Amino acid sequence: MQLKIYKDYQSLSDAAATEITELVKNKPNAVICLASGETPRLTCKLLVEKVKKEKVDLSHITFIGLDEWVGIPPDNDGSCHYFFQNEIFKPLHFSASQTNLFDAMSGNLEEECKKIDSIIVENGGIDLMLVGIGMNGHIGFNEPGVSFDYYAHVIDLDDTTVSVGQKYFKTTATLKEGITLGLKHLQESKKVLLLANGAKKAGVIKKTVEGEITNEFPASIMQTHPNGFVMIDKEAAALLENK
Ligand code: F6R
Q1: Pocket around ligand 1 at a 6 A CB cut-off
Q2: DSSP letter string over 107-124?
Q3: Is the pTM higher than 0.90?
Q4: Each residue's pLDDT expressed in tens, for the chain with a length of 243 residues
Q5: Beta bridge partners of 180
């Protein structure tokens, strides 16, 4: 794992967007997995700008959504679906056939997990996974205590995730379970970028980078990834001893 500290959120997001465009220039049929949420929002905006400016062809990539809130419909503006549709798919004119998101309204969530696992295998594995970090150290919905060996799975949400998650919704949402790629996917991804910005993430970044590697703090798995990058701004780096 490598640590990269940027002067601010803008330059961090710019670097992350560049990672994506450079990957696609070198590998037009790359498999890319993104998280939704506040952290990658600017990366997505800058990605859209770069793709248009540099005329990068994204029509051959396979897009995988990292996770979704179980029971939250795709037209709810707090859903991960809604985020991807508006931040990426619509502005970049992605075709439906290249986007793969969990259907969290499905009556058979086990089948949804198998479907996404298979798509990843059939397309040769994930080339780039871009993730955020929750206030409990989760990645995707890999909550504290989760096995490092899971692929896609359904999981009970941690209390912190349920309360912090309300920030995405206009009215109080019933959040109980998540459907998510697993940490086995992260370990097998050819490259992983974990992004964090702002002082509120300084504590979880310290644990991620300098803490014990334990499934009680899932993001600590980043320390084991040979091609993992923790990309943070100065505020999120504030508590690190070695920087
Ligand atoms: C969202 C996701 C979550 C978030 C994390 C940080 O798809 O997978 O794990 O990345 O909760 O969220 P923000 O970026 O809103 O602080």
Answers
A1: 35-39, 66-67, 80, 131-134, 138-140
A2: S-HHHHHHHHHHHHHHTT
A3: yes
A4: 999 999 999 999 999 999 999 999 999 999 999 999 999 999 999 999 999 999 999 999 999 999 999 999 999 999 999 999 999 999 999 999 999 999 999 999 999 999 999 999 999 999 999 999 999 999 999 999 999 999 999 999 999 999 999 999 999 999 999 999 999 999 999 999 999 999 999 999 999 999 999 999 999 999 999 999 999 999 999 999 987
A5: 67, 153
Other Cβ atoms less than 10 A from the Cβ of 110: the count is: 12
Of 88, 133, 161, 163, which is best to mutate to test ligand 1, by the most ligand atoms within 8 angstroms of its C-beta? 133
Which residue's entry shows tokens 């996974």?
129
Q: What are 38's two structure tokens?
A: 């506040």
